[in-house]
Give the backbone structure.
Amino acid sequence: MSSTENLITSIQGLSASSGDLSALHRILKGAEETLRADSDLQLSTLDQLDPSKHSLGYLYLLDVLTCGGPMSKEKASEVVLLIARFITSCDAEQIRLASDKFVSLCKGFKDRVLELEDPLRGVAPLLSAVRKVQVSTKRLTALHPDCLQLCLQAKCYKAGFSILSDDILEVDQPRDFYLYCYYGGMICIGQKKFQKALELLYNVVTAPMHSVNAIALEAYKKYVLVTLIHSGQFSVSLPKCASTAAQRHLKTWSIPYTEVGNCYNEGKISELQAVVVAHSSDFEKDNNLGLVKQAVSSLYKRNILRLTQKYLTLSLQDIANMVQLANAKEAEMHVLQMIQDGQIHALINQKDGMVRFLEDPEQYKTSEMIEVMDSVIQRTIMLSKNLIAMDESLSCDPLYLGKVGRERQRYDFGEDFDTVPQKFSM
Amino acid sequence: MAPSSSSGLTFKLHPLVIVNISDHYTRVKTQLNPPPSVCATENASSNNGEAMLQPNPRVYGCVIGVQRGRTVEIFNSFELLFDPSTETLDRSFLEKKQELYKKVFPDFYVLGWYSTGSDAEESDMLIHKALMDINESPVYVLLNPAINHAQKDLPVTIYESELHVIDGIPLLIFAHTSYTIETVEAERISVDHVAHLKPSDGGSAATQLAAHLTGIHSAIKMLNSRIRVLHQYLAAMEKGDIPCENSLLRQVSSLLRRLPAMESERFHDNFLMEYNDKLLVTYLAMITNCTSTMNEMVDKFNIAYDRNARRGGRTAFM
């Protein structure tokens, strides 16, 4: 069709500078309908364009070609290959002009990859796609959760973890944020980085929401289990910053987990195992059985940690008795594991089977420590500036001022003060 | 347009007047230009068209006080509505307010009027003349709302009217006068309170610790720059650009031989440990600061946005 050829020549011509690009963008937006109606458009026409130089035009054509309904397996894999190559070689500047098209293209790409049951192929392209669409490293895009989902399916946790290391400060859509934190938490659990998993899941649970959504519920269940594994404590009440909807309803939907938590607080292994067996069908349904088993094994660690606070030296047999382990050998294995993980500091004397608990040997005397402290302080200063700015903008928010004014009216005692007016006139 | 006045009157201004004027101005400005969140919720009402009003609305009002002999003391002020069609201030309201104030403060009477802006204008003279039947020689207090960090003085000017003969025509023109700020104890406390609400960035050090540290910082900066000068001088001498001066070289080498004052393993250890301790304390302070800010913010957020916020027993004091 001549219009398609015209379009292709204009794409090739106008992809040079930013002024030309905006003109090209307008042309493409106008020509989109005709492109969709054009039945002659084939994948081979794309060969005339170079994805790295003509990214914007390539994006539009690719979108029209691939957004069609179900495809055969060979066509799907061909399309997937094409899109993957496009994503890796496209130009970030041009893509950002039509970012929602790019996002929908990548989402379609992810669906096809999942259909083909080969999520590994999609991981690398989506990783680079995320980096290209991101305007700044502090902004969450719609592609983050998709990328993390693919990484989870493909079980390559390391790739997903590299995305999670950015601090996110701005969010476009709340659903993206929930999904991002939930998947991110799961990836961190897979990598056994429970501290970071805890932070991410905590973010979902305490995120502002008007009514409980399923993502928050699942996240809360995992959050309970990860708290048990990581810090060995469980409290039923959610922190103050969680929304009231969450505070009221999350607990009612996750009763087996709160029971496990309460039992964990008691500290008896046998009771905990009984509770786990009783609710094992619930845990299986939520795919959390592995996590629950990890929580049970972490109870041993917690009990041993408690012992370090009471005793200076202890024999392995005594440890085994107090923690209800089978024999001294197992106790030695547990203590050795904990020393390696850095959770306790101790010396095992193998000759007479005594364990001596030590203090944290960190003296904070080295220059490396100074660098660590310096970077941490800088990070906190940045955070503090952001927080103060947000606090001020909230103080000036008329929604907030209106509600405070209204509430003050009740507690002023009649005659002495005038009621606070809603709007100060004059 | 505003030469210095020669009437010989001493003017004393109370801070209450300044705070009143600035509060009036801020209120009107905020209401005329609501923040974007409110604009979005009001659907297509006429307000949207007017939202782009004058970015700096002028506000008007009256100042009252006492005149004893040659001293004019301005104690208080109240607001007036300006009628743009007739370009005069609302007379009936002014008289009503005057009566009310007379009941509470029998000594005070209307001394003049105030407005905001950067400079006195011709139209102001009309208002000034209108007030002349209440007070033969009113004063005009002008507040400049533009924030200028470089300016050290208050952006408040007081004008008097003087009869000057220009080209044979007697004209009233504005002449600015000097004034002093006079405070009552209660005013001093409140001004102090307002000043400490938000420490400005780059402002002068308010606390003793900050002043001490700033002193040390500038001292070290000076030391650094002087060492740099010496370093450049020596490098130039080495290259041969500057002829060698042995006396200077001897002085530099004696200076260098005084260092290092102390170099041993234990000193190094102790020094690093103390340094790390200070860093840890700073970190703790930062975290506490952040936590308290976050706590306040979460409270405000819950009040503003949570649909089923807890009632009873919890008011947030701003």
Observations:
- DSSP finds 21 helices and five strands in chain A.
- The longest helix of chain A spans residues 367-395.
- The radius of gyration of chain A is 29 Å.
